[in-house]
Every structure is written in structure tokens, then in C-alpha cells.
Specification:
Elements (H helix, E strand, L loop, with lengths): L3 H8 L19 H8 L7 E3 L20 E6 L1 H5 L13 E5 L7 E3 L16 H4 E2 L2 E2 L12 E8 H4 L1 H4 L11 E2 L1 H11 L10 E5 L2 H8 L11 E2 L4 H7 L3 E4 L17 H10 L2 E4 L4 H10 L3 E5 L10 E3 L3 E3 L1
Parallel strand pairs: 7-9, 8-10, 9-11, 11-12
Antiparallel strand pairs: 1-15, 2-3, 4-12, 4-14, 5-6, 7-13, 13-15
Helix pairs in contact: 1-10
């Protein structure tokens, strides 16, 4: 499998788009790629790929990540009793939400993970992210760029028969290798081809199992996910971003006993790759399996939260 340091050097994109770059692999999505993506749409069927943002979410407090807290600051009761101070019977409601930016469906920004004290493009981690937030690659820099051709690789479904699975859901701890990704592409056909500028969605099926059996250890526990060995594959394919239906994107437990999230350590600070986690891919996967088309227009911009190192979102796939 090789060392983390050797893999980082092999997949490193530092300087590829200049010393001042803040977009990393999003540079692969150009105007022509977006125009191509728009031409994919045929039926107009749309899918939200977001999990819910509510108090019944998966978070368990690890690293101070909690589920959203939704509070009403004005309700219909105040309106009924005329307590809101508006004339002529006007009333309304208002609310506030407090949550970590990565508590549900989200993007990891380029300032989220460091490698040996370095952030994306070789910058000093401490010079990028300070107590005031990400001063260089804040998630707002990506707000207009995450729209393009989406491709779903439903690995759970593609390997179901081979692995003898009751449901199209990979078991926890299953490491998805480049060979598994290529086998899925071959099984799904031409519309599943993955290349430069694509936004790749990988369905393991863990979220479907979680919805059936309960959250359990979904947040941070064992999970199927991408193997460390997929780093060169992602690099060579020149994908713009990758998202999965799991909490951590890569296989857990990790493949190195003495490492934590080693694939993150390669792809974010070294490759400049945007990672999405906790996406809801099941409804889209069912439709793709039914019509045999695994490509779609994907609109998945982060919220332009200045200086944030991640963002919640409601990604939308249009077929």
C-alpha cells in the first residue's frame, strides 16, 4: 500500500494551478464541462441528496460535533395574541439554528485537513486557518464552482451478488479499491464513465442500512468506504470532487493501525480534492438502476460562509 508520505508525493498537485490557487481540483470544472452537464438532462426528474438537519441526527458529540438545535424566536401564538407589534393584524414566525457546519450532508473545504503542518498548495497550516477562520481557502471561494456532471457509482449494488449480500449495502469495514470502482463502471455502462472534472458520488449503502436499523455508530464508527489505494485512481481520473453516503468518506477502521483518516491526509491538503460526506444517495441510486443512466447535472454549492472549513448543503441531481 505504501507509506502516507510516499502517496502524498505521488498525488500532490501543489503549484499545478499557480501559487495563489484556492480551488484545487475544482479547476477541472470549466465552462465547457458545465455546458456538457446541462445537456445531460432529459426527463427533468430531480433528487435532493441531503440528509435531514435536525436533532435526531447521527452526531454523538465527538470533537464537539452535535446535531442541529432549532429554536423558534417567533411563532403563531405570538401572532394570535398580537404580541409581535405589527399593525393591521400582520404576523409571522422566525427561527434560528445552531449547528456544527459538518453535522449532516456537507463538503470538507481545503482548509479542513493538514499534512505535516501544511495546508493545500504547500502553505503553512497556521498561516491559512487562524482563530478568525480560513484566511485563504475559506469555503466561500468554492460557492460558484460546484456545479457540473455528476456520476454515481453504486458500489453496494454492483457488488451485491459477488459478495452474497442480502441488501445492496457493503458491510462495515469494507475497503473499496480501484478494482471495485472499475468493476462498478463496467457493470453500469457508458454513462458511468468517470473523468476530468466530474463530481463523483460513491454509494456504499451504509446510509440505507442506518435508516433501517438506526444511527448506531454511523458518526465515526466502522463503515465501508474508499481504500487508501484509491488515491492514485482519483488523481489520475482528475475528478473535481467526491462524495459518499458515509460519515467519513474512507473505510473505517482505517487501513493503517497508526493513522487516522489517511486518505483525507492525501486528497485534501496534497491533491486539493473536495470531499463530501453523509449524502443521501439511495433514491437517486434506485432511479439510476431503473433507467440505466448514472450521469446527471449536479448542483452542489456550499453556503458562502466566510472563512469556514466546511459547509452544509442540499445537493440536487437533475436527470
Amino acid at each position: 500500500m505504501g507509506s502516507i508520505e510516499a502517496m502524498a508525493a505521488r498525488c500532490r498537485n501543489w503549484g499545478r494551478w499557480g501559487a495563489d490557487d484556492v480551488l484545487g481540483t475544482l479547476n477541472f470544472i470549466d465552462d465547457a464541462k458545465r455546458a456538457q452537464a446541462a445537456g445531460i438532462v432529459r426527463s427533468g426528474v430531480v433528487f435532493s441528496l441531503a440528509q435531514a438537519f435536525d436533532t435526531n441526527g447521527p452526531q454523538n458529540g465527538w470533537r464537539r460535533r452535535t446535531n442541529p438545535v432549532h429554536t423558534m424566536t417567533d411563532t403563531g401564538l405570538e401572532a394570535e395574541f398580537g404580541d409581535q407589534g405589527f399593525p393591521h393584524g400582520f404576523g409571522g414566525s422566525d427561527d434560528v439554528i445552531a449547528m456544527p457546519l459538518q453535522c449532516s450532508t456537507q463538503w470538507d473545504g481545503l482548509g479542513h485537513i493538514f499534512d505535516r503542518g501544511h495546508a493545500w498548495n504547500g502553505r503553512r497550516a497556521g498561516a491559512v486557518v487562524t482563530s478568525d477562520g480560513d484566511q485563504v481557502t475559506g469555503i466561500q471561494t468554492a460557492a460558484a464552482h460546484l456545479v457540473g456532471r455528476g456520476v454515481l457509482l453504486d458500489v453496494g449494488r454492483a457488488l451485491q451478488e459477488q459478495l452474497g449480500l442480502e441488501h445492496p449495502e457493503l458491510p462495515d469495514g469494507f475497503a473499496i479499491t480501484p478494482e471495485h470502482l472499475e468493476a462498478t463502471i463496467a457493470a453500469q455502462g457508458a454513462t458511468a464513465a468517470v473523468g476530468r472534472g466530474d463530481i463523483l458520488l460513491v454509494r456504499t449503502g451504509q446510509y440505507a442500512r442506518t435508516r433501517r436499523d438506526g444511527w448506531g455508530h454511523y458518526a465515526g464508527g466502522p463503515a465501508p468506504g474508499l481504500s487508501f489505494t484509491t488515491a492514485p485512481w482519483l488523481h489520475e481520473k482528475e475528478v473535481a470532487a467526491v462524495a459518499t453516503d458515509t460519515w467519513g468518506f474512507e473505510v473505517r477502521p482505517n487501513e493503517f493501525d497508526d493513522a487516522f483518516q489517511p486518505l483525507h491526509q492525501i486528497v485534501i491538503p496534497n491533491m486539493g480534492l473536495f470531499i463530501g460526506e453523509m449524502w443521501a444517495l439511495d433514491d437517486l441510486a434506485e432511479h439510476c438502476a431503473a433507467d440505466g443512466r448514472y450521469e446527471f447535472l449536479l448542483s452542489a454549492p456550499p453556503l458562502p460562509i466566510t472563512g469556514a472549513v466546511g459547509s452544509p448543503l442540499n445537493p440536487v441531481a437533475l436527470k
